[in-house]
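Working notes for the structural subgroup meeting. M.R. asked for a predicted model of this chain before we commit to crystallization trials. I am recording the input and output together here so anyone reviewing the notebook later can reproduce the run.

Input as submitted:
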Amino acid sequence: MTDSSSVNGKITDAVAQTAVGVLAEAPAVAVGSLYQAAAHSNGLAMENAVSNQQNLNALNPAIVSQAIAKINGG
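Returned structure, recorded in C-alpha cell form:
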C-alpha cells in the first residue's frame, strides 16, 4: 500500500501556479464580460430606435392626411 500523505513537490507547484494564473486572469475576464454586455445592450437600444423610427415613418402619411382633413374642415 502506498503512503498517500506525501505528495510530489512538482505537482503542488503546478497546482499552485494554475491557481495563481486563474486568479490573475479573473479581473480581465470580468471586465471583458462587462464590456461585452454593455455593447450588446447598446446594440439592442439602437435596434429599438430604428424600429420605432420605421413605425413612425409608416404612420406619418395617415397622421398628415388626418391633420389636413381637420384643417380643411372635414
